[in-house]
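Example 3.
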Amino acid sequence: MHATVAPDARERVTSASAAADEAGLARYARVRQASLDLLAGLAAEDTVVQSMPEASPLKWHLAHTTWFFEQFVLGAAADYRPRHAQWAFLFNSYYQAVGPMHERPRRGLLSRPTLAEVLDYRADVDAAMHERLQRPLDDGLAARVTLGLAHEQQHQELMLTDLKHLFSLNPLEPAHRAALPAPPSVPLPLDFLSGAEGVVEIGHGGAGFAFDCETPRHRTLLAPHALANRPVSNAEFRAFVHDGGYRRPELWLADGWTAVQQHGWTHPLYWSDDLDSAFTLAGRQPLDPHAPVCHVSYYEADAFARWAGARLPTEAEWEAAAAPLPVDGHFADRGVLQPRAATPGDGLRQLYGDVWEWTSSPYGAYPGFRPLAGALGEYNGKFMCGQYVLRGGSCATPPGHVRASYRNFFYPADRWQFTGLRLGRDR
Amino acid sequence: MHATVAPDARERVTSASAAADEAGLARYARVRQASLDLLAGLAAEDTVVQSMPEASPLKWHLAHTTWFFEQFVLGAAADYRPRHAQWAFLFNSYYQAVGPMHERPRRGLLSRPTLAEVLDYRADVDAAMHERLQRPLDDGLAARVTLGLAHEQQHQELMLTDLKHLFSLNPLEPAHRAALPAPPSVPLPLDFLSGAEGVVEIGHGGAGFAFDCETPRHRTLLAPHALANRPVSNAEFRAFVHDGGYRRPELWLADGWTAVQQHGWTHPLYWSDDLDSAFTLAGRQPLDPHAPVCHVSYYEADAFARWAGARLPTEAEWEAAAAPLPVDGHFADRGVLQPRAATPGDGLRQLYGDVWEWTSSPYGAYPGFRPLAGALGEYNGKFMCGQYVLRGGSCATPPGHVRASYRNFFYPADRWQFTGLRLGRDR
Amino acid sequence: MHATVAPDARERVTSASAAADEAGLARYARVRQASLDLLAGLAAEDTVVQSMPEASPLKWHLAHTTWFFEQFVLGAAADYRPRHAQWAFLFNSYYQAVGPMHERPRRGLLSRPTLAEVLDYRADVDAAMHERLQRPLDDGLAARVTLGLAHEQQHQELMLTDLKHLFSLNPLEPAHRAALPAPPSVPLPLDFLSGAEGVVEIGHGGAGFAFDCETPRHRTLLAPHALANRPVSNAEFRAFVHDGGYRRPELWLADGWTAVQQHGWTHPLYWSDDLDSAFTLAGRQPLDPHAPVCHVSYYEADAFARWAGARLPTEAEWEAAAAPLPVDGHFADRGVLQPRAATPGDGLRQLYGDVWEWTSSPYGAYPGFRPLAGALGEYNGKFMCGQYVLRGGSCATPPGHVRASYRNFFYPADRWQFTGLRLGRDR
Amino acid sequence: MHATVAPDARERVTSASAAADEAGLARYARVRQASLDLLAGLAAEDTVVQSMPEASPLKWHLAHTTWFFEQFVLGAAADYRPRHAQWAFLFNSYYQAVGPMHERPRRGLLSRPTLAEVLDYRADVDAAMHERLQRPLDDGLAARVTLGLAHEQQHQELMLTDLKHLFSLNPLEPAHRAALPAPPSVPLPLDFLSGAEGVVEIGHGGAGFAFDCETPRHRTLLAPHALANRPVSNAEFRAFVHDGGYRRPELWLADGWTAVQQHGWTHPLYWSDDLDSAFTLAGRQPLDPHAPVCHVSYYEADAFARWAGARLPTEAEWEAAAAPLPVDGHFADRGVLQPRAATPGDGLRQLYGDVWEWTSSPYGAYPGFRPLAGALGEYNGKFMCGQYVLRGGSCATPPGHVRASYRNFFYPADRWQFTGLRLGRDR
């Protein structure tokens, strides 16, 4: 999940007031601290292990996000010397233009540098950034600081999902934090609401930061359709399972059925086999029937929609519906880290927060898309193949991070993110 | 590559005159015979081997296409008894609704039934079909006959590509047929021609047969763009290779670069390492510099386009450009089975025939798409994930098989089809 | 399974009378013809497929054994030109000193040369050999002819086991030949007979041909022990299965238990899950309870012995017991190709024929072992690691092929040979 | 690498004086403390990672050896309640008779229990053991304490080899400890010394502890042979590499050559590609040409011996030569943890310590071998397949751990132990 500064945004964030605000010291310090806050209650051991090739050790996330500032902001100074000569090799994620890098599936082999050394590195780079941010930044640098903070927030969510995956593989089922008391959960009846049709505009076009893949803002054509008023719930997904959902090939995409057979899927990730509980960051917890189903792959989302006689929304349908709404919702700041049932109310509920919503749209370039020049052009563009767009953020997304035009993307078999679905249909 | 009858087409092909023509005895016999003609010069041994999981033995193709008529046409009669009880298991490709099936990667393990037994089976089913086609067909059955013949033609192209792949793995480099003399090849200068913009209609909507995935005809929005007047040539692709195309990650999609590393790709499939010759169905032959490059994956097509400062066309751009043109071109009936250089001329050349052209469009459902009910609904719909659309047919496609709305689709790493590319760009 | 001429044998077989007999034209023609006889009832298609990396297509066996004579006998003439320049690459099995070779797991990709071309090649080489054998042979060449014929016989057994494996994977379960009527089968009570103890001599030392790995004849020390009077029967092995044999890790070697888990073994290869029938070269047949159990791996043989409170014999114990006995038994010439129950009688029964008997002896060099110089030194010596010795020949072994000192060897997980076991124990 | 108490040893160690000595409090405390001493200079992070399936995290070793005492000594008391109910699942290595266990390749996924929790567990169990050892032990229990301490020592060596492997995969090449100053190294000329021949006795038979696989003491027959006076040196092995050793298939066992190709071996593990330095527990260090070559597989040892016109010794030849010598040598207590050159002198040098010496003997049961009853019978017996015997101990072996009859064993492809070789030959 990756991004870069939209061309027009770059100019704007470097105005005097923007520098004092968006890229200001306080915001930098606050976002950076949020990463460290995630370590509360963890042991150094918890930050070392890589539970699968797609996930990274927490220690790696902490170092990589720091390297990002060192490489793209501090490193812009001709006389800058990296803190540790070999660490660029270790903590460069995938920027081929910057230089060679450690293979991703081997990140878990690195017991060194230790967590303490990584935290020292963070402190060193933060001190240098603190000094640098007190001097004027040109347009490009200011934009890179803004990008670096958005990047840090993306990794904050990944730290939570990677930790959850790691703990889920431990027979002791450790809890990252205590479960918070939940309000009584009530069902919200499913309803379909008509969306806009005809030519609409989507994509980022106004002020403020956006990743390059959200641009340019452009016209697109919407067919008549409707969207469900809320995400699919655990109870609804359980009905799908009880109806033989995972045993009926006619409900699945061919590749999805192959994945079901290959991985032996019989329910969403983290659910118990009796369908009554799920592993969470607060350990094993009973399933709330009315909360949005979570940790389903695109294949499962698609199969459920077919079973329900519906389909997934396109990303344009989703964005057209979400654009007028305030970006409010259940994000990571509530500390629950598990989706909660919708509260009663009219209209489209929970578009933002709780669960990322799979759309039927393959992740690709908008018409006229241009990646940034240089290494940061690798942030998003090179991933535009084989993945699907998700929208809206989740209960593990830092507040303030997403917007209507925000495009998240994962492979159709991925399940370890907080991913759910909302139904759509033709009208 | 798979298909089904478009709803409106179904009604039409069953009119009295259509039955006498499209689904008539003569056409049935002609299409079926074309499959057998492909065996000329081959030994029984050549029809047994499966060279990779994606390919099938020729013997299997011959049996599967026969089973298709048995299952979906003859089998519609309540009292029909299959010729061989177990063969449905062996020769059902992927129709889960029909019953269980032999695993695809194991098709090459079947020395029995022998080729002779399969040919007997073809003769038996053809005799029964001959008898059946002389009696009235209702709408559904007539549509299935038409579909079965389109299906047979798809497998005729696959027989050629699978055989080519098999022979290419044999150190003896056998030739399927003699090379035909080629006219002198001359370069046609590359030119970009503006395409339509704004709202256009694409998809199949008129009379005649089409696969379900080509429907419904619908409106879509085209951004200003231009298309190259001809496909990319071998000489142009060789320049890409010489410029380090396969060694520069910045030119590639992330998954494409992974494929390059994993498979050790350094040039298109079947090219010699000195870039001077290619393995063909007539054995190893010198590369014609002006002929369209062939046997490139989507990843290679995309990387070439990026290197050339262009992009791939969308399938809508392609179809809008192709729709007004007659479906003329270099198809399999010429017996060359290798793309040839464009002949001089104005306008868009070689849209039909020579090479399938990769588009930037992931294969998905058109707005309002509905697969057919029943097992034949599996023909196309369940493959709408992870693949890309190709357009226009190739030098191995039976003449009369493609049309402007025809959507072929393969995975982005596939290279064994006759796949090339045409450049597009924003205007 | 591989061999070479024992040093002393080499001298002997080249005496005038030996040449006229052992290496004579009649014997050459008879052994070579026996390979062709195995094709009776088969289609060309049956000779192409490779069912697993360990097995080879029948066509390959026919060509390889021919290449062996061409390479090591005809090729010894300075002016000899190979029939087909590239075939040495295709049909060299593993003689690195001769030159590079086609990878073993890719043998099944070769539809060409066809069976007919291979048979022509056999005829050509046989004609040249016929001519050559009428002229005097020096010691080395005569030994190589003898070796080539022993080699051909080894491949005759492999042709049967590879064909059986191939047919077993075909859901149609084809039969290679009709089942022969079997005499009534009666149980022979199990009895343990004391073996020799103290220093004995084993290994080949006398006249006649032997592979190099059977030499030198040497002294070894036998501890007090006893051997069962007959191999373990199907009924006995079924009792092991019924007693949870495949579910009790305490009965297995660690690597054996891993194999059980990995492959999902629940009974010997080719047995039906109801333990009542087995796939044979005559198709599926009821299990004869009193016939020797067959197609068990070393791991299964070892686990059975542990379950039975016994152990496998060492190869020295086996050879000391077998040496005084005539090499009579149920070999391939009876045409049954399935082990049969012992006929009543005293003493050690069925040491020769019916099933190869796993011993507890890892295949290694005898003290003072020297492989032949040159490429033929690769015949046996380089396989002396990781495999176990089997003794006695099977119902698929050509008559006259084995002797008391004969050492066959396979990996402990291999099951597709006609492998069974005889119990031994300390005394 | 595994063991159990020899039957006769069991009786002896339980005599009053033996209990006070061998199984006494002081020895228990000393051996247990030696495991903790290995943590000096390490971070908690270093104890979590599993670098390959064959290796285990240090944290796991510390817990497993503790569980061994809890399970087999403390657990013998009817009223004993395990400290942590689920830990037996996590820290049981392979004792199927005790219960199910965590899969070995997943040991590195466990960030919890943390190192601190494991150290608490050690302290708890040690306190209970301290209490228990002050009360009388019956024969069986005393033997189990002795076995547990030998077991702990085996894991001490594994902790060092597993840590070395882990650190070697880190591009930072961390050092576990500082390099100790080495005395000047001088070459000792290679010489072959005749060994005993005829019937000799080997195996453990006297007083004191031995693993079950070292028994029973038995007669065996030695052929005339000679052994080299010292292990093969780095300089000698470098000559093999320079002579194309890793590129000449004729020097290798077939499985060895496959391993060379598959793993891309071009020199011993940990050597630099320029053959001048090696990674050690003190970081990268220059190669001492006269020190024994180390970290070679059986395949490499065997190929070197063939290249040198020699062979590996049998384990019986080794033991017969070593039995009269005192068990002196360079063990782990010197703190060097890297083999050192032999010091000048006559006779067989360095039989004990420096490097484990591969023998040509597959690891198997001695005649009359009986594993212990119960779960501890799994210690050694079930590994008697596919591995080769090594003799003599290494520079990472705790002093006092080995003896002449000691049999270590590893798979022929294993290289991460301190494994070298000594040449032998027929005489």
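The mean pLDDT of chain B is 93. DSSP finds eleven helices and eleven strands in chain B.
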